[in-house]
Amino acid sequence: MTKVLKNISGDKTIWAIIALLALFSFLPVYSASTNLVGVVGKGTTLGYLLKHAMLLVLGFVIIYATHKIPYRYFSGLSVLLIPVVLVLLAYTLYQGKTISGVNASRWINIPFVGIGFQTSTLASVVVMMFTARYLAKNREKKIYFKDSFLQLWIPVGMVLALILPANFSTTAIIFVMVLLVAYLGGYPAKFIGAILGFGILVFAIFILSAKAFPETFKNSRINTWVARIENFSNPDEEANYQAEKAKLAIASGEIQGKGPGKSVQKNFLPQSSSDFIYAIIVEEFGLVGGFMLMILYLLLLFRIVIVATKTDTIFGTLLVLGVGIPIVFQALINMGVAVGLFPVTGQPLPLISTGGTSIWMTCFALGVVLSVSADREAKIEIDKKKNDDNPLSVLHETIG
Amino acid sequence: MLAGAMFLFAFGITYKIIEIQFVEGDFYKKKAESLTIKDGVVKANRGNIYSSDGSLLATSVSRFDIRMDPVTVSDENFEKNIKGLSKSLSQMLGKSAGYWESYIRKGRKTKNRYLFITRNLGYNDYLKIKSFPMFNLGTYRGGIITEQRTVREHPIGKIAERAVGYDDYRGKVGIEGNFYEYLRGRNGKRLKQKIAKGQWKPLNDNNEVEPVDGKDIISTIDLNIQDIAHHALLEQLEKFEADHGTVVVMETKTGEIKGISNLGRNKKGNYYERLNYAVGESHEPGSTFKLMSMMVALEDKVIDTSTVVDTGNGAYKIYNRTVRDSHRGGYGKISMGRVFEVSSNVGLVKVIEKAYGNNPQKFIDGLHKMGVGYKLNLPIKGEGKPRLPNPNDKENWYGTSLAWMTHGYGVHLTPLQTLAIYNAVANNGEMVKPRFIKEIRDQDRVVESFDKVVLNPRIASQETIDKMKALMRNVVKKGTATNIYNKNYELAGKTGTCQTEYWTDNTQYIASFAGYFPADNPEYSCIVIIHKPNKKIGYYGNVVAAPVFKKIAHKIYTKKPVIDEVKQYEKSPELLVENFESYNVKVNKKYETMPNLKNMNGMDAVALLENLGLTVVFKGTGKVKQQSVKAGEKFDRTKIVELTLS
């Protein structure tokens, strides 16, 4: 154990935040598991606790392993992974799993392990890496729209198109993140505008065709989206059950909260252990607890930005921002949904919510961030020894 | 810039939380409470009702209704267990296993999520059905739905059903209904929090208001006597195909109702505890009222039992109506005592008319003074109203009113009101109130106990009481009820055969008998009233009602553990006793010198001397004739004492 701790490298604050979040996550997860046990009627609370512990331990293994990989390898890895992701996404969609009549094919079952794997989370990380790689590679060149369309937007678009039918919010987040990274990576702003317009157009066509040919898209989630957005714009609608229950939870939490495990609404909020866990946290730990948790995520964001700025390669910077910011973004979206700032979407709270792939992919992403950070630390060590005057260009050539 | 946007975002979230908590907070908090917290009722346990001998008459038990949601069961569990479940259900509830299988399958197919299985299971059966295949998986996976109810059970069944009564949607009846304040207790309150659809958990460790369990009632009813009364009445009702009847057995000294049975006939001809006739039915008593008439006359000293009256040929015209005796041809000249014993209407009417004809109010006053014509104010609701005719009420008072009243017409009394007077006679003039409740208990602690309530400490002089007692004894011995006479166990009472519905073409009868037993030392008084027996089978009070009285009296007598003193008829021989006593005296004396043994039994003398340490030889048998050492001499233990017996 001490050996492992000794070998830990990278930003220590990020490590601490991860540890804090992971430790804290046991409280709301254990509390909210009574919903699954008592209401849905499967499993035991201890079972869910152990499962969560197991997921987190594996998550730490993933972080540890990932941050030991020199980050330049992720560049090539992303290219290899894009086709894999496409196949997995296609397979996921093809399964056509439905939850009460609507398409909810977001998961595939990992054989033998029996854990659902949400392919879009993997896709998200891979797409971000891929984007960072493309931008870093073309940093010095003049970017032509046609080239970038073929080399960047076609693969990214294919991935997004495969996620969209089952999960609009993830698609949108990835899309926005890709555009953000592209902007930061020096991609011309007018092209970004064009791509954004194109994306909205594609989405509009998708919705319209679904409305025009309802039979073909019978099981798509369009109606759910429409209903959710309608409910969001008309808060009086009684149908907005989840948002209402979340508000009840937040209101009854008051400043100090009811205390760990004493949430009442956890039994009535569907997805109280994942999508709406923030509402439960506020109910149990109050405004104070909810605020502290948010501070932790913001601190994480802060450290990620620091790692990104301190990194001496463009790829490193873009990679850290590309995989790191979505984590915090996702956290803020989750909180925003719980407090009613956004329409209801199925975004988990990173590192807190239950669900294997969500935790693991977050861990993978954090591992990548730490890998970059660790590389920087190693560089400083080497610099001290070699006093190499232009490490940036040297590294850049190696990435090639 | 990016970080700025994110922080702005975070600020928005914090703002929103604060808004929800403080601006809309009260609204949502109230809503959360109203949705998830409710007042739960913690039901107080209702008290039990016991008989005076400690048997349970009424208690609350849990009953379980079983339903099923066959839809919630997974295909795998359903197919695996349906055969086993059907078989078990068939064994427990009857019908074939095939029936149950197709029934449940059909329920599953039609998505009936509240499929009826059975109702009214006891606790043991409930445990059993819960362990059946499929059902043992529980509510969610096995589909079993149980609904618990608390129902009131009468362990003794239909006996005294009406007197024990009920307190539910049907109303308040009997002990259950009229003493509900003791029995009910007070429900507690406990806040409950919703934890899932249809599931609530207590919010706090303690109840907000603790329930107070109801108290137990120890009734005066004696299960043994009740049982005897019920069956004796039932048997007679069936035998005479009567419409309804009632029996009340009351303890003479205390007024405790030991048995009360009210049986009415339903359309099928079966008898059941229909209405509380004993309490509620006010009717013309007929000849049992002669007791009251005689007593008024005796008290006013207008007659004596020896007063002779001419009953003539058994018919006596008064105004436009004729009083008749049931005995054709009349009894001729008889004493008033005899008039009562044979229940001569003519005799009584003649005497009373003569004495009170000019002043009927005096007669009515006499009755009132005794305590007749008042409600007993029973704790059980629905007591029938007694009615005596009023001479001042000119519209309803006729010239014949007094005459008919003497033998129980135009007067209305409930069986209990009549019994109270008979009991007063048995109780040497002290009229006590009939009582149904002995004690109120909380667990083993007596909360309240009830003593006898004296309604009239003396209804008549002891002289009158004694006379009436003798007459009632004679009714059984040589009067109208000789059919129930038994010389080993004498009963006392008065028969009544009263016409009813005489205003229609189809005159019916009310046969009654009221009295007490044992005749010489009354312990219980009892009234039997049987309405509308089948005239073809019999209708006289002595034939229809008196046998019930007799049966009850005899059964109580034989079942009661009495200590009989068995006299020793073989006298122990006086001589033997005398001898033993003189010997005893002698033995117990301390001797310094030789006692005089003369005329003492030989064996006793030997024993006496040997006990003194002397050596004795003797000759012959019988009593001592001579002793070798003379009386008064000092003991010499070396010498042998010789006795000569004759």
Structural overview:
The complex is a heterodimer of chains A (400) and B (646). Chain A is mainly alpha-helical and 400 residues long. Helix content of chain A is 72%, strand content 2%. Chain A is built from 14 helices and 4 strands. In chain A, strand 1 and strand 2 (102-103) form a beta hairpin. The model of chain A is unreliable at 99-103 and 235-239 (pLDDT under 50). Chain B is of the alpha+beta class and 646 residues long. Chain B is built from 22 helices and 27 strands. In chain B, strands 2, 3, 4, 5, 10, 19 and 20 form a 7-stranded mixed beta sheet that branches. Chain B has a 6-stranded antiparallel beta sheet with strand order 13-12-11-24-23-22, sandwiched between helices. In chain B, strands 1-8-9 form a 3-stranded antiparallel beta sheet. In chain B, strand 11 and strand 12 (257-265) form a beta hairpin. In chain B, helix 3 (75-93) packs across helix 4, helix 10 (223-240) packs antiparallel against helix 20 and helix 12 (290-299) packs across helix 15. The longest helix of chain B has 22 residues, at 2-23. Chain B is flat, with a radius of gyration of 40 Å. The N and C termini of chain B lie far apart (150 Å).
Key attributes of the depicted protein:
heterodimer; A: 400 residues; mainly alpha; two-stranded antiparallel sheet; 4 strands; B: 646 residues; alpha+beta; seven-stranded mixed β-sheet; six-stranded antiparallel β-sheet; flat; cell cycle (chain A); peptidoglycan synthesis (chain A); cell shape (chain A)
Question: Topology, please?
Answer:
The complex is a heterodimer of chains A (400) and B (646).
Chain A: H1 2-7, H2 12-40, H3 45-68, H4 72-95, E1 98-99, E2 102-103, E3 107-109, E4 116-118, H5 119-137, H6 145-163, H7 168-184, H8 189-212, H9 222-233, H10 241-253, H11 277-310, H12 314-339, H13 356-386, H14 391-399
Antiparallel strand pairs in A: 1-2, 3-4
Helix pairs in contact in A: 2-3, 2-11, 3-13, 4-5, 4-6, 5-6, 5-7, 5-12, 5-13, 7-8, 7-12, 10-11, 11-12, 11-13, 12-13
Chain B: H1 2-23, H2 25-36, E1 37-42, E2 49-50, E3 56-68, H3 75-93, H4 97-109, E4 115-121, H5 123-130, H6 138-142, E5 144-153, H7 161-164, E6 166-168, E7 171-173, H8 174-178, H9 180-184, E8 188-196, E9 199-202, E10 216-219, H10 223-240, E11 244-251, E12 257-265, E13 271-273, H11 277-280, H12 290-299, E14 308-310, E15 315-318, E16 321-324, E17 333-335, H13 336-342, H14 345-356, H15 360-370, H16 401-406, H17 415-426, E18 431-432, E19 437-442, E20 445-449, E21 454-456, H18 462-478, E22 492-500, E23 508-517, E24 524-531, H19 541-544, H20 546-559, H21 574-588, H22 602-611, E25 615-619, E26 624-627, E27 640-645
Parallel strand pairs in B: 2-10, 25-27
Antiparallel strand pairs in B: 1-8, 2-3, 3-4, 3-5, 6-7, 8-9, 10-19, 11-12, 11-24, 12-13, 14-17, 15-16, 18-21, 19-20, 22-23, 23-24, 26-27
Helix pairs in contact in B: 3-4, 10-20, 12-15, 13-18
Protein name (chain A): Probable peptidoglycan glycosyltransferase FtsW
GO molecular function (chain A): lipid-linked peptidoglycan transporter activity; peptidoglycan glycosyltransferase activity
EC number (chain A): 2.4.99.28
